[in-house]
Structure formats: structure tokens, C-alpha cells
């Protein structure tokens, strides 16, 4: 287990992947109207851009590939090559001279994002201590929310330049990806993964991770739970991430600059809530109550926007405030934490690859459907769909919240699966962690008996 200082240092390096994930989504979103006008795109082509981007199918396919590769060959493999693929995609978008070139750039960027996310969350979790895992995941989520805030601010500044400004945004993402590649190449491998591979080599005990994942009742239970929590929320968040400026402009009559400004404020609030909310209290607060508050705020934001409309400024700003804060303490942060805790080392990243594939693929389908609903049935109907999706996520996450707070990954694996997925070293660590907690609890009881007035 790395020290707290070294784990935070590696977390910051890895978290740039999350910045580039959300940054690429909103860079495409902020210029969607401009690309549509430039190439004369149909509503189907607009939906296809969203569907094959880092927001949906592109990332889904990348995760399905990157997750198992990370489990088989190591987390470091992804960091050695992933950002090179990302740069290829952003360069294609930056210099796009046709719709096929633009679409290819979006797809390649999405593949790189999808491959990097499961590896990044897994690496962060495996290099964290028991009492700062949520904090470090929160730092990665802070980077994820900072990406859109920075890109939308730059998009607002560059808006007068038209499509050239959006090309510049993708150029900036290319530069940041290059810096990330340089930093991440210096990361060491996850010790948990190294120990697992050493155990498999010495014992000869190997199993196909996906076969095990889909044949175990416990892993299937948590797969369905996490997909339920994340997918229904992400259908809304994904549509917002790519189409919200488009919605503001077409349904609300706002200018491109006004739309980008609103989204910039929303994402600044998300970044603040992530850092001072989830990262600060995720290791200490009651997970069920914490999750419920964020999920309820998300649903309330869309209720206001849908039924109060965008004609009044108060409803727009109430929506921005409620959704912005809820996104910082909501489903994605909890998914990122729980998805790394509830599966053993041998298929920790691969399971995320499967879930991320389902979640982003469903977002891809919704990215094709949502513009059609918006244009044919109107914003109120589209908004009502959004509210229903958020309520499903709220119910699933609140009822079946897992009890993982303060426990080591080895303790959680033992509680969920027994010792069958633990190496001898992991069993010993689980024993030590449990004994330390029992001792601390015993000391606390003894102190209360000796000092009843305190």
C-alpha cells in the first residue's frame, strides 16, 4: 500500500485522464451547433456524433477493450499508450475538413477515453489507504468536473472566433494529453495487480475473469446494482454533457455564448461540490444518506427546468445550481468508488469495462433518440423522460447502498466472496485490518466505561 502522499501524487497524474474524458465531451458539445452549420448536418448526423463520441459508443467500446487488458497485462499498459490514441483523435477533429473525418476523430477519442477510465479508477483505488479511498476517487472526479468548467470557459472566450475557436479547444486538449502521457509513463504498477499475478504464477490458479464474473451470484448482483445506479443517471448526464448547449440554444433561445456560460457555471459548481463535498466527506459520512441527497437534488433540478421552463432566469439558475452541486456528490462519484470496491483484483478493471460499456452504449442509443424526441415531441416530454430516469437511479442506489466505508479492499472482497478470490498475502492483510478495527472498537468501549462522562 502506498503512502498517503505518494498515492495522492499518482492520483493526480491518473486523474488527468478524467479531465480529458469530460473535456473532449464538452469540447464537442460547445461547438456542436457550429459543426452542424459548417457541414450542414442532419439531426441524425448530429445524433451520430454524440453516439460515437467519448460520451457514448466510442467510450463503451474502449472500456470493453481496455478493462480486460488492464487486468491481464497491468494498469500501466494503458497509461503507456492510451494518450497517444487520444491525441490522434483530437488532432483529426482539430483539422476536420469533412463529416467522416470529424466523426472518425470523435470515435477514436472516445475509444481512448473508454480504455483509460476503468484503469484509472482501479489504479487509484488500489493505491489508496482504507480511509482515503473516497478522497482520492473524489480528486479524480474533481478533475472530471474541472474539465468541462475549463473547456466551457474557454469556449465562451473563443466563441466570437466561431468554428476556429472550437478547433483551438481540441488543439489544447491535444497538448494536455501529451503532458498527461509524459507524466503517466512514469507511474509504477499497482502492487495489488503485481501480487495477484505473482500468486497466479506460483500457484498455477488461473481462471477466465469474465467466466468467473458472470458465473458468480455476488458479482452479478453488484453488476446489476452498479449498472442501475450509473446507467439511468448517465442517460441524463450524457445527454446533458453533449446536447445541453444545443438544448439551451434551440429550446431556450439562448446564444452560443450564453449557453456556454451557463454550462461553465454549472461545471464550476460541480467541481466545488466534488472537492469540498464528496472528496472531503466520502470516507466519513453515511453513504446511503449522502447518495440520496445528491440523487434527490438531481431529480429536483430537472423537475424545475422541465415544468418552469427556460423563459424565466430563476428556473435556469436554479437548475444550474441544483444539478451542478448534485453532479459533484452524485451517482458517478459513487459508481467510481463502489465499482472498484465490490469486485476482486483479478477482474476489478474488467468488470468496470463491462459496466462502462453498457452504460455508455445505452447513452449512445439515447444520443440518437433524444434529439428526435426534443424536435418532435418538445422539451417538456424530453424533460419528463429525464426525471423518470433520475428517479430510477435514486431508488436503486438508496435501497441497496453497499456497506464499504472504512474497509480495506481485501476486507470487502472477503465479506462479499469469502477467501476464494484472495491470495495468501491478501488474506493476511484482511486479518490484520479486521483485528485492528476490533482492537480500536474495544479500546473505544473501554474508554467509555472508564470515562462515562466523556
From TrEMBL:
Localization per Swiss-Prot or TrEMBL: Cell membrane
One Pfam family in the UniProt entry: MFS_1
Topology class, membrane: Multi-pass membrane protein
Coiled coil: none
Family matches, as CDD domains: MFS_SV2_like
Main location: membrane
SUPFAM superfamilies: MFS general substrate transporter
Biased composition (Basic and acidic residues): 423-436
PROSITE patterns in the cross-refs: MFS (PS50850), SUGAR_TRANSPORT_2 (PS00217)
Domain Major facilitator superfamily (MFS) profile, residue spans: 7-405
Claim: Membrane is one of the keywords in the record: yes
InterPro entries referenced in this protein's UniProt entry, alphabetically: MFS, MFS_dom, MFS_trans_sf, Sugar_transporter_CS
Protein known as: MFS transporter
Source organism (scientific name): Lacticaseibacillus zeae subsp. silagei
Amino acid at each position: 500500500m502506498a503512502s498517503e502522499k505518494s498515492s495522492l501524487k499518482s492520483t493526480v497524474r491518473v486523474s488527468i485522464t478524467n479531465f480529458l474524458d469530460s473535456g473532449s465531451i464538452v469540447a464537442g458539445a460547445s461547438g456542436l451547433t457550429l459543426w452542424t452549420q459548417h457541414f450542414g448536418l442532419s439531426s441524425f448526423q448530429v445524433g451520430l456524433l454524440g453516439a460515437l463520441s467519448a460520451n457514448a459508443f466510442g467510450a463503451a467500446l474502449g472500456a470493453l477493450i481496455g478493462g480486460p487488458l488492464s487486468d491481464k497485462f497491468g494498469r500501466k499498459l494503458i497509461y503507456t499508450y492510451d494518450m497517444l490514441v487520444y491525441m490522434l483523435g483530437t488532432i483529426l477533429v482539430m483539422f476536420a475538413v469533412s463529416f467522416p473525418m470529424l466523426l472518425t476523430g470523435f470515435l477514436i477519442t472516445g475509444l481512448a477515453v473508454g480504455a483509460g477510465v476503468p484503469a484509472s479508477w482501479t489504479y487509484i483505488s488500489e493505491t489508496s489507504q482504507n480511509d482515503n479511498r473516497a478522497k482520492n476517487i473524489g480528486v479524480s472526479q474533481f478533475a472530471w468536473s474541472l474539465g468541462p468548467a475549463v473547456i466551457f470557459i474557454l469556449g465562451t472566450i473563443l466563441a466570437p472566433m466561431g468554428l476556429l475557436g472550437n478547433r483551438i479547444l481540441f488543439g489544447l486538449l491535444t497538448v494536455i494529453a501529451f503532458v498527461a502521457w509524459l507524466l503517466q509513463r512514469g507511474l509504477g504498477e499497482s502492487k495489488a495487480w503485481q501480487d495477484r499475478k505473482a500468486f497466479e504464477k506460483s500457484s498455477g490458479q488461473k481462471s477466465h475473469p469474465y467466466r468467473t464474473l458472470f458465473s458468480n451470484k455476488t458479482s452479478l448482483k453488484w453488476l446489476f446494482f452498479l449498472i442501475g445506479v450509473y446507467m439511468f443517471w448517465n442517460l441524463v448526464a450524457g445527454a446533458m454533457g453533449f446536447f445541453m448547449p444545443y438544448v439551451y440554444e434551440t429550446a431556450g433561445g439562448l446564444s452560443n455564448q450564453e449557453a456556454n456560460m451557463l454550462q461553465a457555471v454549472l461545471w464550476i459548481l460541480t467541481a466545488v461540490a466534488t472537492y469540498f463535498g464528496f472528496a472531503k466527506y466520502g470516507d466519513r459520512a453515511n453513504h446511503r444518506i449522502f447518495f440520496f441527497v445528491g440523487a434527490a437534488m438531481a431529480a429536483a433540478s430537472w423537475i424545475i427546468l422541465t415544468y418552469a421552463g427556460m423563459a424565466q432566469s430563476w428556473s435556469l439558475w436554479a437548475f444550474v445550481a441544483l444539478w451542478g452541486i448534485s453532479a459533484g456528490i452524485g451517482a458517478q462519484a459513487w459508481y467510481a468508488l463502489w465499482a472498484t470496491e465490490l469486485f476482486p483484483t483479478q477482474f476489478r478493471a474488467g468488470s468496470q469495462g463491462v459496466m462502462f460499456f453498457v452504460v455508455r452504449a445505452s447513452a449512445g442509443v439515447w444520443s440518437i433518440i433524444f434529439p428526435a424526441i426534443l424536435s418532435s415531441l418538445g422539451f417538456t416530454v424530453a424533460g419528463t423522460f429525464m426525471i423518470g430516469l433520475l428517479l430510477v437511479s435514486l431508488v436503486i442506489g438508496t435501497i441497496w447502498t453497499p456497506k464499504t466505508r472504512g474497509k480495506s479492499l481485501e476486507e470487502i472482497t472477503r465479506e462479499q466472496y469469502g477467501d476464494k478470490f484472495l491470495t495468501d498475502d491478501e488474506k493476511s492483510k484482511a486479518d490484520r485490518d479486521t483485528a485492528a478495527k476490533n482492537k480500536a472498537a474495544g479500546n473505544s468501549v473501554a474508554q467509555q466505561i472508564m470515562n462515562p462522562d466523556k
